[in-house]
Amino acid sequence: MKAAITGKPGDPTVIQIKQVPTPTAKSGWVLIKVMAFGLNRSELFTRRGDSPGVQFPRIQGIECVGMVEEDPSNTLQKGQKVAAIMGGMGREFDGGYAEFALVPSAIVIPFESDLPWTTLGAVPEMFQTVSGSLNEALEMQAGERLLIRGGTSSIGMLACQLAKVKGLTVISTTRNPDKKSALLHNGADHVVIDEGSVIEQVRALFPNGVDKVLELIGTRTLKDSLKCIGKKGVVCMTGILGNEWTMKEFTPMDDIPSTGRLTVYTGGSMDLAQDLLQEFLEEVEKGNVHLNIDRIFKLDAMVEAHQYMEDNKAKGKIVVTP
Ligand SMILES: NC(=O)c1ccc[n+]([C@@H]2O[C@H](COP(=O)([O-])OP(=O)(O)OC[C@H]3O[C@@H](n4cnc5c(N)ncnc54)[C@H](OP(=O)(O)O)[C@@H]3O)[C@@H](O)[C@H]2O)c1
């Protein structure tokens, strides 16, 4: 089979397209014919060598959608449409950047949908993260004001749409004024240009602060985001787009406003319930949710796809098809 192999940690050019043996199905695992997969920022960190415990060479890719090629347990029939995410995929064992992927049956979720594979490929990891952050961590409620820090990321764009469907007011941030119209078109009520601090702009819009913050930039902006919440507001840190994993100084009594709350979302495959995924795909089919797919690459162009992600050129999800 054809696979994109990360031979050693480094820049996008360490990824090479090679012919390798197709994996053989084994007990407890499912062989999937990969039809599409989304690119994820965590794969950029893995490629650079920043994911602990990852050994190279490795076929990366923490998610994929496709059809069951073989399930030795006979639970899933050949041709069944499935998604697979996380659980060590593309890190501890080879992942989705290939024509076939052999993954543990525990991370395989069957679904029914007539959406194109390129659309389906954008869904699993993105939906799991957004749904887990907004519903489980932030417990969003209609009428609340939500600040999305890192609004142009694929996670941020989908979060905005799901929050709008639920009846929240959304403020999205970007560092790039040229992306403002894309955020408004995606449904944001307000766009704030993020030059490191957004408190003044947010407080100008909402003097009492916002109810919830989805923090996707991470530790670099976390203190500033905490200052944007009102009484009993909640900040959920889900992303680390700012590339800084640890905070040098954090003084809880100063940095968290009185009665404010700080949480994180680091969910995994077990958080993606089959019925939630199915329900979401049906909403996409009905046109109630529009997936922002920025660009579709072929597997042969994995180096270009990783460079495109690295250059922050996307305004939504990058999808790859084998
Ligand atoms: N917790 C979880 O379970 C989970 C799961 C999946 C993803 N994530 C995280 O969620 C975040 C979003 O992922 P994604 O795949 O949606 O990202 P993405 O689409 O690749 O995000 C791209 C956007 O990030 C912004 N950005 C890039 N570098 C930045 C920097 N240094 N400072 C501020 N903004 C920067 C840029 O926005 P502008 O140029 O418009 O400012 C760019 O448009 C990532 O940190 C990812 O690791 C978490």
Q: What's the pLDDT, averaged over the residues?
A: 95
Given as residue ranges, the uncertain stretches (5+ residues, pLDDT < 50) are none
Radius of gyration based on Cα positions: 20 Å
CATH topology of the largest domain: Quinone Oxidoreductase, Chain A, domain 1
Determine the fraction of residues in helical runs and give it as a percent range: 25-40%
Name given to the CATH architecture of the largest domain: Alpha-Beta Complex
In N-to-C order, the SSE pattern is: EEEHEEEEEHHEHEHEHEHEHEHEHE
Which of globular, elongated, flat, extended, rod-shaped describes the shape? globular
Highest CATH level, the class of the largest domain: Alpha Beta
| Ends apart, CA distance between termini | 10 Å
Strand content: 25-35%
Question: Helix and strand layout, with pairings?
Answer:
Layout: E1 2-6, E2 15-19, E3 29-38, H1 41-48, E4 58-59, E5 63-70, E6 81-85, E7 100-104, E8 108-110, H2 117-120, H3 124-137, E9 145-149, H4 154-166, E10 169-174, H5 180-185, E11 190-193, H6 199-205, E12 210-215, H7 219-226, E13 229-237, H8 252-255, E14 261-264, H9 274-286, E15 293-298, H10 302-310, E16 317-321
Parallel strand pairs: 9-10, 9-12, 10-11, 12-13, 13-14, 15-16
Antiparallel strand pairs: 1-2, 1-4, 3-5, 3-7, 3-16, 5-6, 6-8
NADP nicotinamide-adenine-dinucleotide phosphate is lined by residues 40-42, 125, 129, 150, 152-155, 174-176, 179, 216-217, 238-243, 265-267, 309, 312, 314.
